[in-house]
């Protein structure tokens, strides 16, 4: 176990690999995922070919393996369900499409080709949602990873027609309706709606996912390669899932730019844990060198950036802004809808060069929002000094009172923050923290007259 590796509760993973032709990557995918999950303390059950796992990755084997995992799971356990293989999507055509029928996604077990009328061998999204629901009834720490297509034009497998034969659609829907009769969560078609699930998918509903040969000559799923490499580098780093997936997307931009993975659920969590990352998984932006000495951020107007904003560039292993570990200051010089140009000012003697996975956190906003202040003069002066280091707000100047976003008010020893529409946002007893420079008792001991006869009302 690595020296800085956090301790985990019982951690169980079910790895499913369905290498239906012409796929060749699932076996390698399962091997790499197993090796990485062991670094995080997981015991692994594999469901694949007869020679590779305890369970066969046919329809019955996958469901049996999943139900066995549910039976073993306790309230504090971490659970991972991983699938590598084909994914499919069916939707109605013609007259069927106008009857409120929905798209149906499914995974493709090894025996999918044995489907006959009345015996469909896929596993639908509704069935998966029910199995996930049962899993989260045992533990709220559940991670789902699907390295497969959810699209009509599946690059990870044979071409599946988007507008399939309506008879086939009705067969699949009939199967789902029969299955729903015995399901625990008849309302839950989509596992993304389950608040206890962190889900990572290789591509969107109508987008392709790929496998390819990497440097060692073996084929792997592009998502699995990027995710396992990133998770290896993140052991002990206390990074959020949001940070992990940012690095995964950056890597996939190089290995397979046409594929874009997605993540749903509590992204501020630490990997395979219920705790959130320090800083709550603050928004960070990927930084890239577009040409020698020229840099860009993957964030723009739509992310709230403006010319003149200054961001702190941090190494990949840092999940929040730490000034003494900053690589550089990045000043925004040009802003587009989703990307910005930045000028670098290197820190700590660095002469240039980004470390792999470098990211930027907002540090100093070019547009500081005004807030009003009500309290004794000495206290207001101290507050103004404290806010000089704020990246987002400042005290309103004379004449700006009506444009402020809110107010900070000292009432006896209580600090009160109000929204500009007058309602209370938060209140603190400042004397409960004698170390605060804004503690009235501490300031009074320096000779200030900080006890107003009455509080000043909101204006």
Automatic annotation (TrEMBL):
The keyword rRNA-binding does not apply. GO terms for molecular function: cysteine-type endopeptidase activity. One of its GO terms (cellular component) is cytoplasm. Gene3D superfamilies: 3.40.50.1460. GO terms for biological process: apoptotic process; proteolysis. Residues 12-264 form the Peptidase C14 caspase domain. Keywords: Apoptosis, Hydrolase, Protease, Thiol protease, Zymogen. Belongs to the peptidase C14B family. This is Peptidase C14 caspase domain-containing protein. It comes from Fusarium oxysporum (strain Fo5176) (Fusarium vascular wilt).
